[in-house]
Specification:
This protein has six helices and nine strands, in the order αααβββαββββαββα. It has a five-stranded antiparallel beta sheet with strand order 7-6-5-8-9. It starts with a helix and ends with a helix.
């Protein structure tokens, strides 16, 4: 329904990785935001930022490269070509994720949190009507990627083989997600934690573009009902 009928221009700002970091910095403080090492439209011939780092497309999802050390010249050339390919077209048009369409195309580099692989655990907080209700934890991104949905008290909604501990900063993440989602009927706000310290990741308007199934059908129905209540209030 959001993809078809909600055309708030503010949504484009949320999908812009540069603008989203600014919004988080203003609302939460600089300590919540991963520093920007470099940004631009085209990678220069000489590496413009230190390593380890992660390079991302400013305007889309799943367009990134992890660089644990300075790449060889041939690797850098391939990354230049790959990053140009990311920017050839707007992101998300094929799935009607319209809010990505007008995000300026570009690149952004950040320090690799934790300084090495594996990538840090990803905590995705679902906020309905300003209230954080669920936390989806993503494990082993870049490997055997899997996720588990919890309520806000870190109780898994269905039995799972993995039993990750709650992050030390869970309460702070929940409060930050609610601050950042104020005025929205629904928003997912993503965070990382390194050495007990939380970091803002990004916003998400369309988790899984609305197609990723949950672990049980009742979860989908329950979240839909919560969203409908949030829109009605």
């Amino acid at each position: 329904m959001r993809k078809l009928y909600d055309r708030s221009p503010d949504q484009t700002l949320l999908m812009d990785k540069v603008a989203a970091k600014h919004l988080a910095e203003v609302a939460l403080g600089t300590e919540w935001v991963v520093p920007t090492l470099w940004s631009g439209k085209t990678l220069p011939d000489e590496t413009p930022f230190p390593f380890p780092a992660i390079l991302k497309a400013r305007h889309g999802c799943n367009q990134n490269a992890v660089l644990c050390k300075a790449p060889a010249r041939s690797q850098w050339r391939r990354l230049q070509h790959r990053s140009r390919r990311w920017q050839r077209a707007p992101y998300g048009i094929w799935l009607d994720e319209w809010a990505y369409r007008d995000v300026p195309r570009g690149l952004i580099a950040e320090p690799l949190l934790g300084g090495k692989l594996p990538l840090p655990i990803d905590y995705k907080i679902y906020v309905f009507g300003g209230h954080a209700t669920h936390v989806q934890v993503h494990l082993d991104r870049g490997g055997r990627h899997r996720w588990i949905l919890h309520d806000r008290n870190w109780r898994p909604l269905v039995d799972a083989t993995d039993r990750p501990d709650a992050p030390a900063s869970l309460s702070a993440m929940l409060a930050a997600a609610e601050t950042l989602s104020r005025g929205m009927s629904f928003l997912r706000v993503d965070f990382y934690e390194v050495d007990g310290r939380p970091y803002f990741g990004e916003f998400c308007l369309y988790p899984g573009s609305g197609f990723d199934p949950f672990a049980a059908d009742w979860i989908d129905l329950e979240l839909g009902a919560i969203w409908l209540d949030a829109m009605a209030s």
